[in-house]
Design a protein that fits this description.
The chain contains ten helices and 13 strands. The protein is α+β, with helices and mostly antiparallel strands and about 325 residues long. The protein has two domains: about 1-140 and about 295-315, 3-Layer(aba) Sandwich (Aminopeptidase), CATH 3.40.630.30; about 145-270, Aminopeptidase (3-Layer(aba) Sandwich), CATH 3.40.630. The longest helix is centred in the N-terminal third of the chain and has 14 residues, at about 95-110. The protein is globular, with a radius of gyration of 21 Å.
């Protein structure tokens, strides 16, 4: 039995030789790109290996002093990199050993808590994970099966939106240019009164495009880009990542139009287009594209209860319903 621990970037080639990272969320380069989104974060992985069998886990380790003034400088917590993560294994029988060893590591490394956003399209062993973490189902995530007739699953409203897009003579393009996306995304975040966390004030999106993991699709009206969708790609799946719309886009069928054009483009090449969940309004929009659902679950664990409680007292967040409780609520 072998344990390998370190920076996902420093061990990238070794990890890739051991693990078929077919989804970006399990790829060490993805962790290396996205960790700056988390203040005080660094990309880390923990690999338990026995012959050809393994359990692999990558995450962001965050120094708490970066966000909690007065916190000891040697305290950390960990979180899945944006937007999903979890445990990747080819041997479920190794999970109990993995969890025992990882918990031991967390205690010795002053890691106070762990928050995992489990990738909904991955076949997690929830029964095994639930013995280690406190699991909570958040929502049913939506996905489209990219068959030739996928649009038959659309609600009547989505069909009306496509007709509206045709009347407005919308066109589209796939581009690596992020300048308009940033403008539209900033406008959208302001309209939704989003937390600053979601503004991505780093080069993460550019680096995802450069690495071949991300694409931007625009819908265009009268020569002006009015909607944009940022998608992630794997060998067989598409993932809706970020979306942005101008005010004008919302009245001419643009969001439905661009989702449909992406689906048509990748139909036959990819098997599913994962749309995810969201708040009530966003979820209502997404579920009108498809009847197919998969659960989205989060996992939480306190590795050091005493230090956790002291941080809650230090931050005066006893009434916070966020996890970890000592951090500012961002959603």
């Amino acid at each position: 039995m072998e344990i390998i621990l370190g920076s996902a970037l420093d061990h990238r080639e070794r990890i890739e030789s051991l693990i078929p990272c077919q989804r970006p969320y399990f790829h060490p380069e993805y962790c290396g790109i996205m960790y700056p989104v988390e203040p005080g974060g660094s990309p880390e992985f923990f690999l338990l290996r026995s012959g050809d069998r393994f359990v692999y886990y990558q995450y962001v380790k965050r120094n708490l002093v970066a966000v909690i003034p007065g916190a000891p400088s040697n305290l950390y917590d960990i979180i899945s990199h944006f937007d999903y993560g979890g445990y990747f294994t080819n041997a479920a029988e190794l999970l109990p050993v993995f969890f025992e060893e990882f918990s031991r590591y967390c205690r010795t490394a002053n890691i106070i808590s762990e928050f995992v956003r489990l990738l909904p399209t991955h076949a997690h062993d929830y029964a095994a994970i639930g013995q280690y973490l406190s699991l909570r189902k958040i929502t049913e995530s939506v996905y489209i099966k990219l068959t030739q007739d996928f649009e038959n699953e659309y609600s009547q409203r989505r069909h009306r939106e496509m007709a509206k897009a045709a009347r407005n003579a919308l066109s589209y393009e796939q581009s690596s240019d992020l300048s308009t996306f940033r403008e539209l995304y900033h406008e959208t975040m302001l309209r939704r009164n989003a937390h600053p966390y979601y503004y991505f004030k780093c080069d993460a999106l550019e680096n995802l495009v450069r690495a071949g993991m991300g694409e931007i699709w625009y819908s265009i009206k009268d020569g002006v880009r009015i909607s944009a969708i940022f998608i992630l790609k794997s060998k067989s799946e598409l993932f809706y990542y970020l979306g942005a719309n101008s005010e004008a886009a919302l009245s001419c069928g643009s969001p439905t139009f661009i989702f449909t054009k992406i689906g048509r483009h990748y139909c036959g090449e990819k098997s599913i287009f994962f749309l995810g969940g969201g708040d009530a309004g966003v979820y209502e929009f997404k579920q009108s594209f498809s009847k197919f659902r998969t659960p989205y679950c989060i996992g939480m664990k306190k590795h050091n209860q005493q230090a956790y409680d002291e941080l809650v007292q230090l931050t005066n967040r006893q009434n916070n319903d966020f996890f970890p409780q000592y951090r500012e609520k961002i959603i």
